[in-house]
Amino acid sequence: MTNEQVFQAALHLAGELSSSDSTVNADYREHSGYLLAMVCRQCEPVENAYRKANQKGAVALPDQLSYQLSATFPLSAPLSTAAAFGLAALLVADENPDLSASLHARFQSSLQELLASLPMQTESIVDRYAAI
Hints:
This protein is an all-alpha fold. Helix content is 56%, strand content 0%. It contains four helices and no strands. The longest helix is centred in the first third of the chain and has 28 residues, at 26-53. The mean pLDDT is 88.
């Protein structure tokens, strides 16, 4: 999956995918690289929990301020939907605050749903009262 596919999904979710002509949403396209980088950073803790549950190493997100839309999406496939909701919320934040709030709530719930679907893992409890 590419960042472009996440961007297209975000446009669809925001109701802005009105044409295949790339000039129609040029303003969204211009800002999407920066916003997608921000959304991916917000998804990073969930991504690492997902990877840990699947016996994979932690994610190494590109250390960039902006992502290229032609690049591969840096997170696991299940997080692409959540990222699309997050990106859509940020893209329409100025024009439609109500829609943005709704999309952001869906972004947050998508992350929570993914965390809830992960198997429970036992870990030792840190003793925070050792000095008492």
